[in-house]
Amino acid sequence: MDMQKAIDYLLAGQPLALATDFDGTLSTITPTPQIAQIHAGCRDCLARLSGELALVTVLSGREVEQLRQLVGLEGLVYIGNHGLERWEKSKKYVEPRAFQYAPVINSILGRARQELRLSGLVFEEKGITASIHYRSAQDPVAARKRIASLLRDLAREPGLKVLEGRRVVELRPPLDLNKGTALLDLLRKYDVRGVIYAGDDKTDLDAFRAIHRWAIQEERRALAVGVISPEMPHGLMEDSDLVVEGVKGVAEFLAILAEAFSRNQ
What we know:
Helix content: 40-55%
Distance between the termini: 24 Å
Structural class: alpha/beta
Order of helices and strands: HEHEHEEEHEEHEEHEHEHEH
Largest sheet: 8 strands, mixed
Number of helices: 9
Number of domains: 2
């Protein structure tokens, strides 16, 4: 589907929701997560569209407070920790079942700090989840293997999930919650008839598949926008309805969408 056809298709399915990942989609991937910044063009378009669409939401593996600060826009719904946290209408909600796993997750992260004697690793404690980034490791391939093996060994007894993304390995509670389930809750709550989701990583495939199922089951419209890069995961191209090149491509798509929506009013 080309971009203009995709936008025309969506405009016929209003009210419309816009949902997007953050890292690798609204912000270029950085050596450490702390220095990431939202693309100025993406931010401007989100601000513009938030006043026009029924729902604009940003979903991320980051903690929801950090995500909200990085985007810096009011009026959006923020989903953090892969669906375990939500910021909506000035209130924070955390999935209560996740709290019981926080002590063991943090304990495993502490043990990993002691056992993984590799330079360039970034250990990120996120309350109810944890991540180890290895983008800056001297040998990322070897680092990934060691991190994933250790975390799987340590997570086996408490039954935690060990999942991977772009140069990161994550520990999560064993709950059937992800970006897809969180997004579906919002689509139903806001009673939209169409949705766009833009993402670049493995965790975004959960959202792609969820909105496609939702569109079929509820006779709605869904557009999965894949953000392609040299590090894109297997399945991204196949599950995308439209692809764009990197964060710059996302900014261009959002600008065209905002302009088309304004003309359609």
